[in-house]
């Protein structure tokens, strides 16, 4: 979802855009999520990769690092993808832990890349 006007990053409130296809408010969300089973041993990569595959196949922008997978999109879509990725393990009978942090910022988009670019700009000064 692209903004048509300049956004003031320092404003406490932003105008909430409407999704032209649904006429619903578009609530941009960046999520950091870690999904892993309990009791399967010391190495979790085989299981974590199943959850990450669901996220990557969701169509939402995402990136995986050593600790979390970050996802960006409308709040409803992000929560649906987190649920689907969690169920990938839970439906196999595993006790599944989910660590989830959400940054809900209406009026913004492209934050997966823009946040790190802003930090890099500040550090280069």
Summed up, the helix count is: 3
Helical residue percent? 25-40%
Outline the low-pLDDT stretches.
Answer: none
Kindly provide the radius of gyration, computed on alpha-carbon positions and rounded to a whole number of angstroms.
Answer: 17 Å
Per DSSP, what share of the residues sits in E-state strands of 2 or more residues?
15-25%
* Mean pLDDT over the residues: 92
How many β-strand stretches? 4
Main β sheet profile: 4 strands, antiparallel
H-E order: EHEEHEH
Class by SSE composition: alpha+beta
Spatial strand sequence of the major β-sheet: 2-3-1-4
Name the overall outline. globular
Q: What is the terminal separation in angstroms?
A: 30 Å
Protein described:
The protein is an alpha+beta fold and 125 residues long. The chain is 33% helix and 22% strand. The chain contains 3 helices and 4 strands; from the N terminus they run βαββαβα. The protein has a 4-stranded antiparallel β-sheet with strand order 2-3-1-4.
């Amino acid at each position: 979802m692209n903004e048509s006007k300049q956004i003031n990053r320092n404003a406490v409130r932003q105008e909430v855009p409407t999704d032209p296809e649904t006429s619903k408010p578009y609530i941009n969300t960046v999520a950091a999520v870690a999904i892993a089973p309990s009791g399967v041993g010391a190495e979790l990569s085989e299981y974590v990769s199943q959850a990450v595959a669901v996220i990557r196949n969701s169509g939402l922008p995402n990136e995986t690092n050593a600790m979390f997978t970050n996802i960006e999109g409308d709040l409803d879509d992000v929560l649906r993808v987190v649920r689907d990725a969690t169920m990938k393990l839970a439906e196999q009978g595993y006790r599944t832990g989910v660590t989830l942090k959400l940054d809900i910022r209406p009026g913004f988009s492209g934050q997966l890349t823009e946040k790190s670019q802003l930090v890099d700009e500040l550090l280069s000064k």
